[in-house]
Amino acid sequence: MNQLRRANEYFGISKSDFEKSGAFNPVIGVDNLFFVDPLLLSKTTTPELKDGLVKVRKYFSEVITLLGFDDPKTDRKAWGKLILREVKGVGIGYGNKSDDGSAIGPQLAKRLVDTAKYLIQMGIKDPAIFEVMGLFEEDFGPDRLSDALIRILHKDLCRYTERVANELSIKDRITLRQYERSYSVPRHPFGKKPLLFIPADILRNLPLANNFEEICQMAAFNEELRGKFNDLIAVCFTGEKKKPSKSDIRGFLLGDKDRIHTIVQVYRSSAPNPYNFVTDPSGIDSWLEKARYFTKLNPIDLPAHPQEKDLEAIVQKIISAFKSFIETKGGWRSLYDDKLSILNESHAQHFFYATAMIYCELCDIDISPESNAGRGPVDFKLSKGSKEKIIVEIKLTSGAVLHGYKKQTRIYQECEEAKKSFYVVAQVTDKSKALDRILEMAEEEDDAGIQHPIIISIDGRKKPPASKA
Question: How does DSSP assign 275-339, residue by residue?
Fold first, then answer.
């Protein structure tokens, strides 16, 4: 069973020395929830990336130039340039069952081509449009933008990784034969692929280009442009729907050239800051250390040599310890950032996964990321070839609780041939109709003799200070 460890631990380097290199120190093997922000490329102190933003916009300018000919042959070339495959072993973003990223495949590239052609016909030819497409283009979220940037800057990141590995005297290397030369980079601890480092000063918890409100806050523009932008957003975000879909936003923004032009202008004048890994204001970097601290203070009695019949009881003990920590020991704070805003559901999944893995190391239980740990269920199974398996799914009431219970968890259980599944829901909203409904459904299924995921409800709502309780 692979332990959860950071890069510095795998390579036997002190955390402080690793951080002095300027490289992000990822937890290996899972998706670390940070993304490359294109605007930070213009501010980085990393010499290999000093022209990073220029290179990115030159790349997208070439796509726009090709599409501008309005010819099937050049359209195909533009489409080919937008197919940006993931770079293996980067360790950031929303990975797919690993730390390998997602990037842009052929279908998404075709939709981006169609959108870009439409904008070109409107007279919009600014390459920065590709950076803000995440505001209105389906399936083009922060992970795909970030992975696309990493692919475009792959050669520079190889040079950077080689230099950092030399400075840190990392001996376990693999040779990457890319471009005009070979690069000696660290070997990924979980296989024969390379591990690439990313400078911490180009990372944010979400790229600026994914949030209208933050773009406005970080932009330095004149009053006329500010008024235009605010009027634009007011129209887009008011109405019957509390939160418009990307389709709604797309329909509105692409309905007028001036709207898109305003968005790009405001975005270009923005000046975001990299994520502060020292203070970790959103609490999304220190989840492994929190899990280690929690499990050390809260040991549970687990058998050293469990039998198949013990698996369910062990999983229940782990879930109970997690529930107790959240509800009675101040652990609810780990579900919120420093402003008490609810964190991404993936963070709660990460934290539970780390907690469970540390407990499982104490006995012969394997906790597996086969079903995309940190972005979905966690698999527990007895090691040494046993087929006994239990699925645990973690949800927040701010997420799709009903859908997860009715479909998602059952599909995972069936696909993984698991004996049982637990559906753990942390309530982070004052009320949750979805949680109430699935508890009713569970009772109805019990009465009908229908097997269903076992629901564990955790009260993760904000607690008042003791003096005000």
Answer: --TTT-TTS-SSHHHHHHHHHHHS-----SS--GGGHHHHHHHHHHHHHHHHHHSSGGGGGB-TT
Query: Are the C-beta atoms of residues 144 and 159 closer than 8 Å to each other?
Result: no
* 367-417 tens-digit pLDDT: 764 444 444 566 566 554 567 788 888 899 998 899 888 877 777 677 767
d(CA 409, CA 403): 9
One-letter amino acid of 32:
N
| Burial tier of 217 (Cβ tally within 10 Å: 0-12, 13-18, 19+) | exposed
Amino acid at 173: R
Q: How many angstroms separate the Cα of 175 from the Cα of each of 24, 186, 194? A: 21, 9, 8
Sort residue 316 into left (φ over 0), alpha (ψ -120 to 50) or beta.
alpha
Max Cα separation, the chain?
71
Using 50, 70 and 90 to split pLDDT, how confident is the model at 349? confident
Contact 373, 355 (CB under 8 A): no
Q: Which token pair is 259?
A: 């709207």
Say which residue, 403 or 426, is predicted with more confidence.
426
Do the Cβ atoms of 26 and 32 come closer than 8 Å? yes
Alpha-carbon distances of 379 from 354, 407, 446, rounded to whole Å: 13, 17, 24
| DSSP assignments along 330-364, one per residue | SGGGGGB-TT-PBPPHHHHHHHHHHHHHHHHTTTT
pTM: 0.85
* CB contact at 8 A, 220 and 269: yes
